[in-house]
Specification:
The protein has a domain at 94-169: Serine Threonine Protein Phosphatase 5, Tetratricopeptide repeat (Alpha Horseshoe). The chain contains nine helices and four strands. It has helices at residues 2-6, 37-44, 47-56, 71-77, 81-89, 104-111, 114-122, 137-143, 147-155; strands spanning 9-11, 17-18, 25-26, 29-31. Mean pLDDT is 81; it is low at 1-27.
Amino acid sequence: MTHAIRAGWIVLGAAIFACGACGTVVNSQHNTAEYTPLDAAATSGDVATVGSALDRNPSLIRSTEWNGESLLHDAVANNQEAMARFLLVRGADVNALDKSRLAPLHIAAQNGNVPIIRLLVAHGAHLNARDARGWTPLDRAMKWHHAEAAEALRSLGARATVPDGSAPAAAPAPPAKAPATAH
């Protein structure tokens, strides 16, 4: 672990990063050069710190981490509803995509956080956006067994990529090629 820190990486491996009372446990890696105090403030729900930083430099609302996650991604991933609301009011892109093409709505659905799902949709989140696996937010809610979140998404007009409503088991396979015929 000491070597990893000296190399500029924080590795939480088996360690637990709990976010206040939300009960979220994160197993993560961050490049310390790109994970800033502002990212940490958004993750922990520190509206005062984020607000002060945005007052000094409004363009920070578009900042991203090493994996392309925005401040809104951080807030949503850690179930920080007040922070998510604050960032949206300050101009955060509700449909920003990280390097895995996850939008904040995918993350809220995967977490099963219905209030944040409703907040994001009210601010224009694309209900049927597809991530790098081709999954929609509804697919993620189903995959992680969040029935209430799945029902909320359906009631808002979301669709799943699997017609029978079952969660996708894996990334969609490419279309099969027809076998070659001999002449």
